[in-house]
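Dear all,

This email documents one entry for the complex benchmark we are building for the journal club exercise. For each entry we list the sequence lines for every component of the assembly. Then comes the predicted three-dimensional structure of the complex as a token string, followed by one or two observations. Please use this as the template for your own entries, and keep the labels exactly as they appear.
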Amino acid sequence: MMACRVFGALAFGLLGSTAQAARASAASVEQTGVRQATTQAGRQRRVSVRPEGRLRGGADFGSNASTGVVIDAGSSGSRVYVFRWEPSDPAGTIVELASLRIKPGVSKHARLGGAAAAAQSLLPLLEFARAQPGVQPAETQVHFMATAGMRLIEPALQRDVLAAVEQLLIDSPFLAARPGARARVLSGEEEALYDWLSVNAALRLLGGDPERTASVTDLGGASTQLAFATLPEHVPHEVALARFGHAHVLGVSRLGLGMNEALANMLSGPSQAAMGSCLARGARATSAHGVELEGTGDYDGCRTAIRAFIEQYEARRHAGARAPPTMPSNGQWPLYLFDNFPKGAAILLNATDVPTEQALTLAQLEELGRAVCAVPEDAIRFQRPLGTAQERSPCFLGAYMVELLHGLYGFPLSPPPGSQVGVLKFVAELNGFSMNWPLGAMVFEAVYAPAAGVACA
Ligand SMILES: *[C@@H]1O[C@H](CO)[C@@H](O)[C@H](O)[C@H]1NC(C)=O
Ligand SMILES: *[C@@H]1O[C@H](CO)[C@@H](O)[C@H](O)[C@H]1NC(C)=O
């Protein structure tokens, strides 16, 4: 029987966080559930395979190279990532070999078919990872990490799903990760910290001067995260602070300020009457409480409504106290933005594709948002088909991104002379990596967890 501390304060070198308790409890799962060793074909909606040789850094791996697998269980789908690195320098040599996404997410499978069905839905992802050249399953650690979709399902079902997935991974040909890091639900703060590790690993900035690291923010459907390196004495005690090498990294997450949640809550809360300003001129909608909304396409009015909504949110979050400043002071690198940020930028830019890398100032983003709000409903067309309801409210989207970055986080509209603060880099991909938290999770497991003595015997 293995015995060790679960993933928690020790692993992150956490100095203080309200997230600790949640993390510790999420990490302890009971080992019941399915035994499953066979495979089955699954529906694979989107495949992206990266030929190893095209990636930057360390395409020539020695015979000792390590591989690792992270399954990102999101609310709308699950995605597997296969990584490879040299054990002598994991952060400096890691590459993303391949990734595959399937729909729907495990939380939906769990609701429809129970925990066993949710676990089995992952088999095509394990099969895919196993089939990658250079992957020796017996030497490849596999991690399952879930985000908002799994946070929202009822605790008993969540526990059963995690137990079933953990058993599936133990029974699979892959190397079982250390207990506590096999199957778990990430807290928002962990997501923020992994975001930071992802961007700085992709930029090859880990292990160097903390002052010379990039800040990062992501906008999900349910929550939004921000992370940057700072000095511990500048950090209010209610936020998560982790130490990676010499860098103290602050990670904050705001559940409820993700794009979908914010729009849904604004349409049903005290701000609903003001929401007409966020809809294109001529658009009509009915709010959750039956208020008839008529679009006025008023960018400034929309910003005001959003500001009031965020202020109410912050007042609840900080119980009336003034919110701590959350803007990074480090001016050497731009802010890297991913998830719905680049998707939103693609809409505002009227681009056909989500930009892999696109730099804009906040002033430019504001100009784009203002222009989109000014187009009447019957005239608005985009090159990129608008998917979700949120994307179909582009006037809201632009105003919301600007209000979050400028109003809430305090980034300036234009960078001060000689500074990158206020330069926004919208990244769907960065140096050959899909930009999202799994790269950071893998780097954590390869570099920081062993160094912190988290491995169990
Ligand atoms: C692989 O690891 C062994 C043992 O640590 C070491 O002696 C050897 O030089 C390594 N080989 C390569 C190609 O890095
Ligand atoms: C987007 O580009 C298309 C094609 O050039 C154009 O017809 C459309 O009006 C543009 N939409 C906006 C909102 O600028």
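Observations: The first strand starts at residue 46 and ends at 49. The chain has two domains: 19-186+437-448, 205-222+258-430.
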